[in-house]
Specification:
By secondary structure, the protein is α+β, with helices and mostly antiparallel strands. It has 28 helices and 17 strands.
Length: 633
């Protein structure tokens, strides 16, 4: 991947964009592409790229111009061989081996349809000189990030908000709606970045701007995890064979690079299957990286070691100690540019640093499998009879009363009790009453997206319960957490590109066609995927129960750093105005005296959110809340 940034004059008067501003924006993205920097200027237009060279290091410089089209891309295509042959047959002559040139010729040949015809992870800018038209587009699943802002008549865009802040044209202010979304839904908002005036380009969306076209987000692809079977539904055996073949191809194409590619290997089936397929396709021994939690959480390293030994891959372990969790917390928040609720981000940041130290520029990882093939524990609620579901929801009442008051009740589309995620969201929402200031509650009243679901409202509404639950996670937890602050940011902070075989077009299409009963068979989650895995892994690894990475939240524990106390001081909390100092002090007192386990789990997560939000404010908004150096471009 790379980092891209740019500016377009929406007054169409040909104003020059100050090269020093573009330089500052690119420097803020240096970690995303330390191998090369390129720029492109026209009156009223500036495009910059920080390049991470994984294919054709000598010939793939960006931005790249072919005929009247200039392209800047963050990402990778995995259909290179097919598309190169197709475009050559159409008369285009290639002079490089990089996929950026494929994007250029595909756009010249097919226009917007080039997006639908691609099998790729990308965020891209296309400038059509002849039509004076800019197109910004993001891949269908939200793997590669892109953010925009409109200020002083300029449309600005960049791979990360920090690059937009580095332009000097935007005053950084924390957006309360983004903070609230993280604390309720455990992920970033599809509609808000952490900063006012900066908006994310949503997955499967694009923006086009020209003298006669106002820039607005439009959907070019809609994810539907329960499409009508066409052709008629295959047998379970057929689905297993097809998924095996599609995953094999997805892994093989993602191993292709002019730089070494590794895998992440946890104790679960998702990454183990990816590693097994990588080992089968690689002419060289595969290197896998895993985490060992040393007294700071559930340690899956022995399970990863068992899989590595069975597959004959070289396993490198990064040991996470209490010092890691506190020393790297600041870097994790700075990289994420968002509040974080657990320490898994910190663990993955440490792991990406180890990957980079060993000379790898890309890593295959298992995100997307749980969402596509029904792997989360809460999906099992969908197998319960309706009466049992209603009974379980009614049992929430005393728990909600335990953690918060009624004014913090869940609102919007997520307040539907029939959703599998409803118990989690409802409890997290109630817990806010133990945190927020009156000013924060007032700021949340005017959110126009409160009742807007993150998926296309025109998609099917008559979905079975499991498909509805999958849709929530696929449009929220996956793109706005696992692929964002936990995936892209933690890897790219170390100049390592994450690649996601489960998010291959063919794999996802099969997941959409597969009926719910082969994903969740009885109470066996991921039955279809595990049936493929048992062909490549020991039986114990293929059918191993689901584990979720969660490290002990030490950042606000008894041995917390001094700067945490500074961030949570009444004066610092009053400066940001988001959290009530007395409520936070009461929570910290209860935290230090060890709460009952259930309430401790919920409120420890929220306390981590408070610490990281205060830290975010200090790093980027100049509040001088603690004795840590702020972020600078």
């Amino acid at each position: 991947m790379c980092g891209i940034a740019g500016a377009l004059d929406l007054t169409w008067s040909g104003r020059p964009f100050d090269p020093r501003r573009l330089d500052a924006m690119c420097r803020a993205l240096h970690h995303r592409g330390p191998d090369d920097r390129g720029s492109f200027f026209r009156p009223g237009l500036a495009i910059g790229v920080q390049r991470l060279a994984l294919m054709d290091p000598e010939g793939g410089a960006q931005p790249m111009t072919r005929h009247n089209l200039t392209v800047a891309v963050n990402g990778e295509r995995f259909d290179v061989q097919h598309q190169r042959a197709h475009l050559t047959q159409r008369g285009h002559t290639f002079t490089t081996r990089c996929d950026t040139e494929i994007w250029a010729f595909a756009w010249l040949e097919h226009g917007l349809d080039a997006l639908l015809l691609s099998n790729a992870q990308f965020a891209a800018a296309f400038w059509d000189e002849h039509r004076s038209q800019l197109t910004l587009a993001r891949d269908r699943y939200g793997i590669c990030p892109l953010y925009t802002a409109t200020v002083d008549g300029w449309l600005l865009w960049a791979s990360e908000p920090k690059a937009l802040l580095a332009s000097g044209l935007i005053s950084p202010e924390i957006d309360p709606h983004a903070v609230d979304h993280m604390l309720v839904h455990m992920c970033q908002s599809p509609f808000h970045s952490s900063f006012k005036h900066i908006k994310p380009l949503r997955p499967g969306h694009l923006i086009q701007a020209s003298p006669d076209q106002k820039p607005e987000q439009k959907r070019w692809f809609s994810v539907d995890l329960a499409a009508p079977p066409s052709p008629p539904a295959a047998t379970p055996g057929d689905l297993i064979d097809a998924l095996d073949a599609h995953l094999s191809t997805a892994v093989q194409t993602r191993m292709t690079a002019d730089a070494p590619v590794a895998t992440y290997l946890s104790g679960g089936v998702d990454s183990a299957l990816i590693t097994a397929l990588a080992a089968r396709h690689s002419p060289e021994p595969v290197t896998a990286f895993t985490l060992k939690l040393d007294g700071v959480g559930t340690n899956e390293q022995p399970l990863a070691l068992q899989s590595a030994q069975a597959l004959g891959v070289h396993l490198i372990t990064e040991t996470i100690t209490p010092a890691h969790l506190t020393d790297l917390f600041v870097q994790a928040v700075q990289a994420a540019e968002a509040p974080i609720l657990d320490h898994a981000n910190v663990c993955l940041l440490a792991l990406s640093k180890r990957v980079a130290q060993h000379g790898f520029k890309a890593v295959l990882t298992g995100e997307g499998a749980d969402e596509a093939f029904a792997g989360y524990p809460w999906f099992k609620l969908c197998a319960l009879p309706p009466a049992a579901r209603r009974l379980s929801n009614s049992a929430l009442a005393p728990l909600k009363h335990l953690v918060g008051g009624p004014r913090a009740e869940l609102q919007g589309w997520a307040s539907d009790p029939s959703l599998a995620q409803y118990p989690i969201f409802s409890l997290l929402a109630r817990a806010r009453d133990s945190l927020y200031s009156e000013a924060m509650w007032g700021a949340l009243k005017d959110d126009p997206h409160r009742f807007t679901p993150p998926w296309d409202p025109d998609t099917r509404q008559d979905l079975p319960p499991l498909s509805r639950a999958q849709r929530v996670d696929f449009h929220l937890l996956l793109p706005e957490h696992l692929l964002a602050d936990k995936g892209d940011r933690m890897a790219m902070a170390s100049s390592v590109e994450p690649r996601f075989p489960y998010l291959d077009n063919a794999v996802m299409s099969l997941a959409a066609q597969a009926p719910p009963e082969v994903k969740l068979k009885g109470l066996q989650e991921k039955w279809l995927l595990r049936s493929v895995a048992q062909r490549h892994l020991p039986h114990s690894a293929a059918w191993r129960p689901k584990h979720m990475l969660r490290a002990t939240p030490l950042i606000h524990g008894p041995h917390r750093p001094a700067w945490v106390n500074e961030l949570l001081s009444p004066d610092a909390l009053r400066k940001t105005g988001l959290f009530d100092p007395h409520r936070v002090a009461a929570l910290m007192s209860a935290r230090d005296s060890r709460l009952p386990s259930f309430k401790a789990w919920l409120l420890e997560s929220h306390l981590t959110g408070v610490v990281s939000t205060q830290l975010l404010h200090h790093l980027f908004c100049g509040a001088s809340l603690c004795d840590l150096p702020p972020w600078t471009a």
